[in-house]
Design goal:
alpha/beta; 7-stranded parallel beta sheet; 6-stranded parallel beta sheet
């Protein structure tokens, strides 16, 4: 199999974010590109950064993760005076024409020849010239036109989806619903999120504060976000008054936190380093994903469900299309059905058999997912 030149671009995160965070889809993909035998040369591009802030960080010598540079592997950070994204198609076209020119120059300097472009940025995929690349693949790992924090850009994101279809841009999406939302006219593929099998092996170590909580321990691990259905948590709290219901993750919505804090047996804990999450989940009796049903949750690939299953613990989740085929023992709660009844069944069923757990890990490894992404981008 011949090696290829590739350019990979971030959108709402940077190389430094990816190194520090480690577990989200772009973080995993960039690390796979760095080690893949299918990649001859690689240019990784941060989104535009604010030049004044960039210079200030340099002068202050603030620490930043080093990029593993090689003769044909490099990182570039385009700069401009302002940091925030433009609004409106004409402004975005101008922005990304300039960004594209920067990347083209850097790719030429690196000696890349007609590289394949893989980008997580819908605006770059839609509105930049990109006529120097051999192909363009948009890697869609969320429906940005349904994320509340990006609401002011929703019309532009919708326009970007339509423009990608007009251009025949390749689209790799994490779910069938998301691929249909973008509606590519060119090649497309569904590649869900995955796990790294080596990260989900014993020995398991639970935090002492968690191990001390009364059983059963019911856990949600993930962003504390408006996608969480706090009424479902209320139902669970009332049905299991002696249980410990634990919510662990970064706070994206303070109102959700306030609503959860009203429930006497709900314990909220800040996000843990990813290396500590496996032991935490493995010590739970049931893992939860009580999401609302909306455009965002119907298009996402729920990484947390893959991670729950990676520990073999029983899972109860809102019945959403991307969750239905993750693992046959995930208990799905249909609209109008009781989460509490599903939890009782999950407690009765207990954890997955070890052979089944190991098979799940191999079947859903990030390595296989990344090969599928490269198959689409390099065909």
């Amino acid at each position: 199999m011949s090696a290829n030149d590739i350019v990979f671009t971030f959108w709402n995160e940077t190389w430094a974010d990816a190194v520090q965070r480690k577990f989200m889809p772009p973080d995993r993909l960039v690390q796979a590109l760095l080690s893949s035998s299918r990649v001859r040369g690689l240019l990784v591009a941060n989104p535009y950064r604010s030049a004044p802030r960039f210079v200030a960080r340099k002068m202050l010598r603030l620490p930043a993760p080093a990029f593993p540079r090689r003769p044909t592997f490099d990182l570039t950070t385009p700069l401009r005076v302002w940091r925030n994204e433009s609004i409106g198609e004409s402004a975005l076209r101008a922005t990304y024409a300039s960004y594209d020119a920067h990347l083209r120059t850097r790719a030429d300097q690196l000696g890349l020849s007609r590289p394949a472009m893989i980008t997580t940025n819908p605006f770059y995929a839609a509105f930049a010239p990109l006529d120097w690349t051999s192909s363009v693949t948009y890697y869609a790992w969320d429906d940005w036109a349904a994320l509340a924090s990006l609401k002011r850009w929703w019309p532009d994101i919708e326009r970007a989806y339509r423009t990608m279809a007009d251009r025949g841009t390749r689209v790799c999406a994490v779910s069938e619903n998301l691929l249909a939302r973008i509606g590519p006219s060119g090649p497309g593929a569904v590649v869900p999120n995955g796990i790294m099998p080596s990260e989900w092996q014993p020995p398991w170590t639970a935090p002492s504060w968690f191990a001390a909580l009364p059983k059963p321990r019911l856990i949600y691990v993930g962003s504390i976000h408006e996608r969480l259905n706090t009424e479902t948590f209320r139902e669970i709290s009332e049905s299991f008054p002696n249980a410990s219901i634990v919510v662990v993750g970064p706070v994206s919505n303070q109102q959700v936190v306030k609503d959860l804090e009203k429930l006497k047996n709900v314990h909220i804990h800040h996000a843990l380093p990813h290396a500590e999450v496996a032991g935490l989940i493995h010590s739970a009796d049931v893992c939860l994903m009580p999401h609302h049903r909306n455009k965002l949750t119907e298009s996402m690939s729920p990484l947390k469900v893959y991670e729950y299953c990676a520990t073999g613990r029983p899972v109860v989740a809102t019945d959403l299309p991307p969750v239905r085929n993750v693992q046959e023992r995930v208990h799905l709660v249909a609209e109008g059905a009781s989460f509490s009844e599903a939890i009782k069944q999950a407690l009765n069923d207990g954890p997955m058999a070890e052979d089944d757990r190991q098979a799940f890990l191999q079947r859903n490894s990030w390595q296989g997912r990344h090969e599928a992404i490269l198959d689409l981008a390099l065909r």
